[in-house]
Amino acid sequence: MRKEFPLTGVPYSQSVRLSAMIKGVLIVNNHGKARIVKFYEHVVRPYPDAEQQAVIRDIYTQVSKRSDTLCNFLEGRCLVFVETLDKCFENVCELDLIFHSDKVHYVLDEIVMGGMVLETNINEILTAVNEMNRLDSNSTKRSLPGTGKK
């Protein structure tokens, strides 16, 4: 008989792989407003949005109790994401996360895909981001009226 986790239906034999998986990435400001949210493990319960909001509230409650001088990571050991954003935005701030969320998500997708870390070399990540920026600027130039290009 195959034994499974009750909520997800995942076999116990896969539990080691799942425990190493990144469940989500949350960036929350000092007032509890989520700026970047990306879940890699889908919530199987009847109200997934409510469950995700509860997770965000719980995490904010945990990290807001700490001093303002401390960086808050839960189960986090690697600063590749923060360092890459610092290099992309030249000292990243909350406004960068708000107005360039597409770029932030692209950087995150270069590092983590489906909950598994794919790349930790900052130079490789920056190369991919710069290539994406180059392609994006070329497509924007071609689509703007009055540029003389089709």
TrEMBL record:
Chief localisation class: membrane
Organism domain of life: Eukaryota
Key words of the record: Membrane, Protein transport, Transport
GO cellular component, one term: endomembrane system
Compartments it resides in: Endomembrane system
One BP term from GO: protein transport
Short name of one Pfam family: Clat_adaptor_s
Protein transport found in the keyword field: yes
Annotated AP complex mu/sigma subunit domain residues: 21-77, 80-135
InterPro entries listed in its UniProt record: AP_complex_ssu, AP_mu_sigma_su, Longin-like_dom_sf
Membership in a protein family: Belongs to the adaptor complexes small subunit family.
Protein's recorded name: AP complex mu/sigma subunit domain-containing protein
Organism name: Aphanomyces astaci (Crayfish plague agent)
